[in-house]
Amino acid sequence: MSANRFDVVIVGAGHNGLVTAAYLARAGRKVLVLERREMVGGCSVTEEIWPGFRVSTAAYLASLLQERIVRELELHRFGYIVDPKDPAFFSMFPDGRHFFMWQDERKTLDEIAKFSTRDAETYPGFEQHLEELARFVEGLLLTTPPDFPPRRLGDFVEYLKLSARMLKLSRSEMVGLVKIFTESAADFLDEWFESPEVKVTLATDGVIGANGGPRSPGTAYILLHHCMGGVGGKRGLWGFVRGGMGAISEAIAESARSHGAEIRVNAPVQRILSGNRRVRGVVLEDGEEIEAPIVASNLDPHITFLRLIQESELDSEFRESIRRFRTEGTSLKINLALSGLPDFRVLPGAGPQHRATMHICPSIEYVERAWDDAKYGRPSNRPMIEMTIPTMYDPSLAPPGHHIMGIFLQYAPYTLHDANWDDIRDAYADHVLNLVEEYAPNFRSLVLARQVLTPLDLERRFGITGGNIFHGEMSLDQMFVMRPVAGWARYRTPIHGLYLCGSGAHPGGGVMGAPGYNAARAILKGGMEPSEERRAASVWSSPG
């Protein structure tokens, strides 16, 4: 085989593309990963933005990365370590009260009881209900969706298998599944709790990255989606990765390299080569052509099909379906270098509050009003603000005595009604910092430097269309058998030999690795001779 010919070329070294590369390399394929940036990881990266400050510029917490992938790719051997977040949440309220959620359920129940003894009694049942729903949905994460509509007899068999799994559920679990997929986060929580403070703290997971408010149908599933991972064996727990989120990507990359995969950075792909609806390889922006019978794209569906593939290679119906795939984001990230810790009015001094995800969003109505602004093309006047300080767990990320803070907020629509982000970016960031200072009077004086990433900046920097952190909305009509479009949810595409392996495929966004895992399995099952397929099967059945 020539030096410029590979079994598989993967476009984009986001964490999913790296997972695909690692599994294919383990199966003996000659794999090349091409990344346009100077580092691997996509949105899961650690960057030294300011001297001595190493920042998780985009993704900032870990939980969803599938344990099977961690085990089989031996990521701990390659430096993957997660420090569980404890406390999990710290919410501040204008009346001077505050609310912690802890790893220790007893401590959490005591906190809830400060707001409602009834809710404290209800909470264990709520947790058990989420556990039951998550167990079922988790069973779908590392599976290939059946074709929809069904085309062959085998498709009907897949639906029968899915039905058999559902029949094992109790009546309450079946009802719960319907509700979690269709209800709003607020409606779902209203059935369990009475305290506004408890409800809004839990509702934040339902709107992170979503184009919708807590009363928008479908946000209940986003809440569940964020509860399907875990750290240290505890479901729903999130943690800080030692060395920042880039350590995840580097560990996966090293696992792939250990099995022979080649990874090239500063190698932007200009076009995916194909003819007669069969992939032939890729051409880089510098003109270099690389041959491969299989190409897997870790890029979002819009970039893959509307920019990298010749229009004549796709039928008009498919292209129009991809154009309708909704990809505009509403999330904004501000990264800060701090000279010290914020001093909160509701709980002065240093303490466990700085180790938690810190929320500024006093009520469901507050968050819904923030969404109302975004619906009409305006950044939220009083956004939902989520803050984290990773240096509380890993001081090596900043110079001694200094800290990093990440502010993630909803809502900042990609498309603005009467402004553009390049003009208002700094003024809006000032506004956000002033809002934080209402709760922490010393806050502005601590800020040494800042990086503001609007949805437009996320698109430019990380190559995600519309700045959508999930590679596309995770609404019911864009999930499972409908992701990215009906009839093409099985990682294959209308171009023979071209696959999707990023978050635009099932099961969607988050640093979980599942789309990359599933795509690798589809490639190994669909692109080889029978003898090779039997060999590849051992990759998936091995204990790791």
Give the overall shape: globular
Helix content: 25-40%
The first-to-last residue Cα distance is 29 Å
Q: What number is the mean pLDDT?
A: 93
Task: Please state how the strands of the largest beta sheet are arranged side by side.
Answer: 7-6-17-18-19-16-20
Our estimate of the beta-strand percent is: 15-25%
Specify the structural class. alpha/beta
| Total beta-strand segments | 21
Q: Largest sheet, if any?
A: 7 strands, mixed
Write down the CATH class of one domain. Alpha Beta
Q: Find the CATH superfamily of one domain.
A: FAD/NAD(P)-binding domain
Low-pLDDT segments: 528-538, 540-544
The CATH topology annotation of one domain reads as FAD/NAD(P)-binding domain
The count of helical stretches stands at 18
Q: What is the radius of gyration computed over CA atoms, rounded to a whole number of angstroms?
A: 23 Å
Do you know the CATH architecture of one domain?
Answer: 3-Layer(bba) Sandwich
